[in-house]
Write a structure and sequence with these properties.
The protein is mainly α and 148 residues long. The protein has two domains: 2-78, no CATH class; 87-147. It has helices at residues 2-14, 55-71, 87-96, 98-103, 109-118, 127-147. The chain is elongated, with a radius of gyration of 24 Å. It starts with a helix and ends with a helix.
Length: 148
């Protein structure tokens, strides 16, 4: 992986690109270059890139590795902690999504966003958190009904 990152960084520097995530997230900026070989693209001349491996380059590389890890969600901080839903939050979910729970239907994004607007205790959550909380409620009810 280190060698691949070095190739990306070398080509990014050669192309005089200042945006660090250009190769990780292609978009409008890369349209003029799509379908072209690397040799066909005209680059702005830039000072020579030293090929020698020095400490500063190694430090730069570790910073870049951390950036790539953040983009790919590989960093240690990317691990999310579990949230225990409070009684008020559970009641709000059950009231807001009673129909979905009875029909065993996972709510869509719009329904989750409406619930966030209507219930102040759900305002700190994203719509995906709400969606998966309702999904887990449906799953737990299904399991409890199978046991009976």
């Amino acid at each position: 992986m280190r060698q691949q990152i070095e190739v990306l960084v070398y080509n990014r520097n050669k192309a005089n690109v200042k945006q660090p995530y250009l190769f990780a997230r292609p978009g409008e900026f890369t349209k003029p270059y799509r379908g072209k070989d690397f040799d066909e693209i005209e680059f702005v001349p830039e000072k020579e890139i030293l090929e020698s491996e020095s400490e500063s380059e190694t430090d730069d590389l570790t910073v870049i590795e951390k950036d790539v890890a953040d983009v790919m969600d590989l960093s240690e901080s990317a691990a999310q902690t579990r949230h225990t839903w409070s009684k008020n939050e559970k009641i709000a979910l059950e009231c807001q999504f009673q129909k979905n729970i009875n029909l065993e239907k996972v709510p869509c994004k719009l329904e989750c966003l409406n619930a966030i607007k209507n219930q102040s205790c759900l305002a700190r959550f994203t719509w995906k958190h709400i969606k998966y909380a309702v999904k887990n409620l449906i799953t737990s009810r299904r399991r409890s009904l199978k046991k009976c």
